[in-house]
Specification:
The structure holds two protein chains of two kinds. Chain A has 20 helices and two strands. By secondary structure, chain A is an all-alpha fold. Chain A has a two-stranded antiparallel ribbon with strand order 1-2. In chain A, a hairpin with a 4-residue loop joins β1 and β2. Chain B has one domain.
């Protein structure tokens, strides 16, 4: 029931918002709908926790064997929480900006959330693909209508890029479906397939490309900085905070358990790409003068680390208990970081948007001295920026630390190199983040920054939510780790490739 | 075979109406009623109610595939008449003859879809194409229309000759025209049979405008009056494809090891040429002409893959592609400026029409939630298990991504650009908008639940 509600609330709510007679109502209505779905997630996490509450299964397109089946495992619950928080933050963050056609804007925003909910919850591959695209279409319209100056060219690039990836994935899905005995798209049926190594080696890429483009992983990232820069901030916030997480979630659910050998064989290549991405994006971020692009590149670096950690888990699990233990906490790190990075980057976008709307510029070189003139804003900014560096006591620290554990215990001969190089990413992230803080908040004030910056109630509320989450999971990450503990063991069993080799 | 008799009778009726001197509005209504009857009678036949049965199993045999396809064609034909019948009056003075020709073409559709003898296939193809030569040149004072008609006629006649040659060779090899006896018990084809097979294959490829036999298409579609382009590019092409699939599935299916690879090569060529050329078009009409070649490439995947998925896919593809293209053309005819720029800023003045156009374009591009996506999905499903299926399918989806670019260019113009100076958009009549809305709803409905249409194949 909860699972179905999480899809239906934003879907129907979005439809209602789209056709609201009075545009002024759009914002409050959209916020109410986002809050209702947040409440639904929270109820599902605290009250209705049984599997029956979180699953739904219905006949759908019978001739091709697709079913409308949703199933909320821990990963799905966790990401649903993130996506509903994201929707609330995105609406709160844009509260004071007046947009043309607000009803359309917020309606599409909610539909985007509906698509993402389907992606996180679907246990049928066809439905998963449906949601994957459903999230993309509203994002395309949102960015193209309300975006920045170069929006049209940039968003079509973004759209075609991700579309190429997803249609390749579609071929992979059809291929797997035709191998299942009953022609079904169910996750379980895919999982039961005993694919040979030679097939997995190339099938892997059909899926991986789609996910890698979404994350985005180097060298498939070129759409991302432009798209983030040009999209309106509430959309960027959802894109980077939630939508790119779809890529990692898809790898966790649809790639590693199903194509375990493929993932293992290519894991060195993938980790290599991820590590190159970390260094490359960080180095570019250091040179950026544009605040939004800086955040965009830092996001590539952080997601790269998560992918590297995830692929370090591939292979056998039964060789040593110690390794298994580290893989276990490593996977928990991935889960934690998916959430934390989502929250942090959404915080960063809220801050960047505030700066841009107040001073009309995103250039670091045109800012300075804000620490004196806008102290409250500075406090928020510094806390969230420090979380971006993964400083201890912020939520990103446990996540990244556990991820490094996973990389160190990867079954790859190059694990030490990978660890050292990806560790460099932390240092580089400190460089660009602290440098950003220095250039915005210290130094001389100029004519623009002289008058400071005042936060409105909605913004303070949104930023407070972010800061609370940063601190709660930074000081007591055990809450999240307890939540993911059993799931993590189960998951590691499901990606063990021994079952392929036992034949 | 309700449709065969009814279409022929109505065609004759329409011809006589032209000398009766009644008003154009009445003629239009009679034509629309006739098309409605065609649709209803086919649906009735699906339910087992047969008014007229032609008992000639060696010539024609209607199966459920033919009936479902015919209902799709006549249903789309009805929507086409409701949307565009008025525009035909602008083409020339022979208003009711145009309708008569279209009804005759529907007779041809029946033959193309239910032949059991190669002769009937030939007759069907000719009954479809000869009226088309006339319709293409219907705008008599327009040189481009004349040129298109002549070009189409010459090339069409040439390819018909090739088809006849092929049929003759097949007859020489097998001593029969029956599609049931095309392949001998041994299953090993003679050189003569293979020669005939390929001649028929290439001439059918010409009729459905598959590359490299597509060169007539852009010129003819561009030159013909837009209302008739809409008809040719959709219903005629779909019917020809359905016949193509029928012949190569039932007739030559067991020989597929010898021709399947060629179907794959043609499909890939068509997809690449159609999509790549469509990217460069400025005029929406020409863009749609090239996109119809590109879409033919996708339908060719059905011929390449064969099997149940291909049949279901062909029906769904026919429905989704025809609906969306008929809708696009109907709006396009009314636009003042028929280039992409002509659509700039349409959404600001005509939000509802723009939303409907968006549905059509998304469906043509194959985005989920629309019938176009599922149609492509079926084709991919059909083609994937074939020899070299994976490679063909990968090309197909990459080309689908290319097609996003040019379809979305129109979408960008409609939604994201400011209207150009001095361009005004036509007012759309409420009835017209209602029909368009029905089409868009059908597209979305089929995109969510294709079983609603496809279950008629089996029950």
């Amino acid at each position: 029931m909860i699972a179905l509600l999480l899809v239906l609330i934003p879907l129907i709510g979005g439809g209602l918002t789209l056709f609201l007679p009075r545009p002024a109502l759009a914002r409050p209505v959209a916020l109410t709908i986002a809050l209702i779905s947040l409440i639904a997630v929270l109820l599902g996490l605290c009250q209705f926790t049984q599997a029956a509450h979180w699953s739904y299964d219905e006949e759908w397109i019978q001739p091709i064997g697709a079913r409308f089946s949703l199933k909320g495992d821990v990963l799905a619950k966790w990401m649903s929480l993130l996506s509903s928080i994201g929707a609330v933050l995105s609406i709160l963050g844009g509260w004071n900006t007046d947009r043309k056609l607000p009803a359309r804007f917020y309606g599409l925003l909610l539909w985007m959330q509906a698509g993402m909910s389907i992606v996180f919850l679907a246990s049928d591959a066809f439905l998963f693909y449906f949601g994957w695209e459903l999230a993309l279409i509203p994002a395309y319209f949102l960015s193209s209508i309300w975006g920045g100056e170069k929006r049209i060219a940039v968003t079509i690039k973004f759209f075609i890029y991700t579309f190429v990836g997803s249609v390749l994935m579609l071929i992979g899905l059809i291929y797997l479906q035709q191998l299942t005995p009953d022609g079904s798209f169910q996750w379980q049926a895919f999982r039961n397939l005993e694919l040979t190594e030679s097939k997995q080696i190339w099938l892997f890429w059909l899926f991986f490309l789609a996910f890698a483009i979404k994350v985005p992983l180097f060298p498939f990232h070129t759409w991302q900085p432009d798209a983030y820069e040009q999209a309106p901030t509430p959309v960027t916030l959802l894109l980077s905070g939630v939508m790119v997480k779809m890529g990692v979630v898809a790898m966790i659910r649809w790639l590693l358990p199903i194509l375990g050998i493929g993932a293992f064989i290519w894991s060195d290549v993938v980790i290599c790409l991820a590590v190159v991405g970390i260094l490359y994006a960080s180095l570019i971020a250091i040179r950026q003068d544009d605040l939004k692009r800086l955040i965009a590149y830092s996001s590539i670096a952080h997601m790269g680390l998560t992918v590297a950690a995830l692929f370090s888990l591939t292979g056998f699990t039964n060789n040593s208990n110690v390794v298994l233990h580290y893989h276990h906490i490593g996977f928990q790190g991935v889960m934690l970081q998916l959430f934390s990075h989502g929250v942090n980057i959404m915080g960063m976008w809220l801050l960047a948007d505030r700066i841009e709307s107040r001073f009309g510029t995103r250039k670091l070189s045109e800012l300075g001295g804000l620490a004196r003139t806008a102290p409250t804003f500075t406090i928020f900014f510094v806390i969230i920026a420090l979380a971006n560096i993964a400083l201890p006591l912020t939520n990103a620290f446990p996540g990244e630390f556990l991820q490094f554990n996973a990389i160190f215990h990867a079954q790859s001969p190059y694990r030490i190199v990978f660890l050292l190089l990806s560790g460099m990413g932390v240092i580089l992230s400190a460089i660009y983040t602290l440098n950003m803080i220095r250039r915005i908040f210290y130094g001389e004030t100029n004519a623009a920054t002289e008058n400071g910056l005042r936060l409105t109630t909605a913004e303070t509320l949104a930023l407070s939510i972010v800061v609370v989450l940063v601190l709660v999971f930074g000081i007591y990450p055990q809450a999240a780790l307890n939540f993911t503990n059993d799931f993590s063991w189960e998951y590691l069993k499901s990606i063990d490739i021994t079952r392929f080799l036992a034949k | 075979m309700n449709l065969l008799l009814l279409a022929a009778a109505w065609g004759v009726l329409m011809m006589f109406l032209s000398v009766s001197g009644i008003s154009r509005a009445t003629i239009r209504t009679i034509a629309q009623v006739g098309m409605g009857l065609l649709f209803l009678s086919t649906v009735a036949e699906l339910q087992g109610i047969v008014f007229y049965d032609l008992n000639a199993p060696a010539m024609l045999g209607v199966d459920r595939y033919a009936l479902v396809m015919l209902s799709v064609l006549s249903g789309c034909g009805l929507l086409y008449f409701l949307l565009s019948a008025k525009d035909m009056a602008d083409v020339g003075s022979d208003y009711s003859e145009y309708f008569a020709l279209i009804f005759f073409i529907f007779c041809g559709f029946v033959l193309v879809l239910s032949f059991t003898s190669l002769l009937m296939l030939f007759l069907g193809i000719e009954i479809v194409t000869i009226p088309l030569y006339i319709l293409t040149g219907a705008d008599k004072r327009n040189l481009k229309s004349n040129e298109a008609s002549l070009k189409y006629f010459l090339l069409g006649a040439f390819s018909t000759g090739i088809m006849l040659m092929g049929i003759a060779l097949v007859y020489g090899a097998r001593g029969s025209f029956s599609t049931l006896e095309l392949v001998g018990a041994s299953g090993i084809p003679t050189q003569l049979l293979l020669g005939g097979l390929f001649l028929i294959f290439f001439s059918l490829a010409f009729k459905v405008s598959v590359a490299p036999f597509h060169f007539w298409t852009p010129d003819v579609y561009d030159g013909a009056p837009t209302v008739f382009t809409s008809f040719m590019a959709t219903l005629v092409k779909v019917a020809a494809f359905a016949g193509f699939l029928r012949l190569f599935d039932h007739g030559f299916g067991s020989l597929k090891s010898s021709w399947q690879i060629w179907a794959g090569i043609l499909a890939v060529l068509t997809l690449i040429i159609g999509n790549m050329t469509a990217v460069y078009q400025q005029s929406v009409k020409r863009m749609l002409a090239y996109s119809s070649i590109a879409q033919a490439g996708f339908m060719m995947l059905g011929v390449y893959g064969l099997g149940d998925a291909a049949k279901e896919g062909m029906i769904l593809y026919g429905a989704s592609y025809s609906l969306a293209t008929i809708g696009m053309f109907a709006v396009l005819t009314r636009m003042q400026d028929q280039t992409v720029e002509g659509f700039n800023g349409l959404a600001k003045q005509q939000p509802w029409i723009s939303a409907l156009l968006a549905v059509f374009l998304l469906s043509l591009a194959g985005i989920p939630l629309t019938a176009g996506f599922l149609a492509k999905f079926y084709m991919l499903q059909a083609a994937l298990p074939a020899t070299y299926g994976m490679a063909v399918v990968i090309v197909a989806v990459i080309m689908a991504a290319v097609s996003v670019y040019y379809y979305f260019r129109v979408l960008q113009a409609i939604y994201f650009r400011e209207p150009s100076e001095g361009v005004s958009f036509p007012a759309f009549a409420p009835g017209f908008v209602r029909i368009l809305t029905v089409i868009a709803l059908l597209i979305i409905l089929l995109g969510l639940q294709p079983g609603w249409l496809l279950r008629y194949l089996y029950f």
